[in-house]
Design a protein that fits this description.
elongated; 6-stranded mixed beta sheet; Immunoglobulin-like; 2 domains; 344 residues; 9-stranded mixed beta sheet
Length: 344
């Protein structure tokens, strides 16, 4: 989803007129990338962002969540300006960056963030200030810090998305005539992690169970055999999953993340790094009352051969019944479901 000041030294060298004229003719015929930014005044660039989206769901899935939405209030975005040239994004073509956050209306306003890209405060005095030149804009949310001006490291639990805005390949050209400000509409951010809704519930026929929660004193829900966290990616590019997920690559969802929709149904939404098709381990630390007896129990199992696609949307529903439990995985992208027996 600014910090660099340049001290310019002006050096004047006089050339004969004929030499200058020849140089101008050659420059006019050149097919080199866009020239380096001009010295002098700077243009304040303001941005509009349509929102964030994942892969489109199957049309017949009436319950499927909407994939395209405005950013949540205080969601952060880092916008990076690179010189429009071959090889962008690269450290050599990096020009400047600025962090923004969505306000209550969904509009982007400059802000300060912490070292993890989390919102700290709005900063009305800040803006992305660019000298005259031609630029491409790369955006990431959240406003993760950049490595070598080009890469981000993405952890499980982060709703990471990115976009490239390059004016159809031509770049955006600003000159001193654009002073004091110009406006750019960014390309919609494309979600790169997988969105999973976790649901814990009892079967409707299991009337003896009168309460069911993710145990507040337990380990919550643990997903294993995931991609190794973090994954590194160049801004604007897709995340590449770990080729062979390992059982030790885990993500834990704390009990406090879950909310109760009724006495026997708890749910939350999490984001995990994409993974290739392979078995996925999952365990639930639960607390329930059955026939007036309170019990703590961990229910564990696996989902066979599942891929978690970048931008994909899934629902994992654990249903407790007598005598066991079933985990139903719904893929909102292709509309398919998979039932998996779980220990109970």
């Amino acid at each position: 989803m600014s910090r660099y000041d340049m001290k310019l030294t002006r050096i004047t060298i006089r050339f004969p007129f004929a030499v200058l004229l020849a140089a101008l003719v050659l420059a006019g015929c050149s097919k080199e990338p866009a020239p380096a930014p001009e010295p002098g005044g700077r243009v304040a660039v303001h941005f509009t962002l349509p929102g964030i989206e994942g892969k489109p769901e199957v049309a017949s899935a009436a319950e499927a969540p909407q994939t395209k939405a405005a950013l949540d209030e205080y969601a952060t975005v880092r916008i990076v300006a690179y010189r429009h040239a071959a090889g962008t994004p690269s450290a050599d073509n990096y020009i400047a960056e600025q962090t923004y956050a969505a306000d209550a209306s969904g509009a982007l306003s400059p802000c300060r963030v912490d070292g993890s890209g989390n919102f700290q405060s709005f900063d009305a005095s800040a803006a992305l200030m660019l000298p005259g030149g031609t630029y491409d804009f790369y955006a990431v949310t959240p406003a993760l810090p950049l490595g070598n001006h080009t890469t981000v490291a993405v952890q499980h639990g982060v709703d990471y998305a990115t976009s490239v805005t390059d004016n159809g390949g031509a770049g955006f050209t600003f000159s001193l005539s654009d002073l004091p400000a110009s406006n750019v509409t960014l390309t919609t951010l494309q979600r790169q992690c997988a969105k999973i809704e976790l649901v814990v519930m009892r079967d409707a026929s299991f009337a003896g169970m009168t309460s069911l929660v993710v145990n507040p004193q337990g380990s919550g829900v643990t997903l294993s055999s995931l991609s190794t966290s973090p994954l590194s990616a160049v801004v604007g590019a897709a995340l590449t999953p770990t080729p062979s997920p390992l059982p030790a690559a885990k993500y834990n969802v704390a009990p406090a993340r879950f909310t109760q929709s009724d006495a026997t149904t708890a749910r939350t939404t999490v984001y995990v790094l994409p993974k290739v098709a392979a078995d996925l381990g999952i365990s639930f630390a639960l607390k329930y009352t059955l026939n007036k007896v309170e019990t703590n129990k961990t229910v564990s199992g696996k989902v066979s051969g599942i891929a978690l696609d970048p931008g994909g949307s899934y629902r994992f529903t654990l249903t407790l019944s007598s005598p066991g439990a079933t985990l139903t995985v719904t893929d909102w992208i292709d509309g398919g479901t998979q039932d998996n027996d779980m220990g109970a």
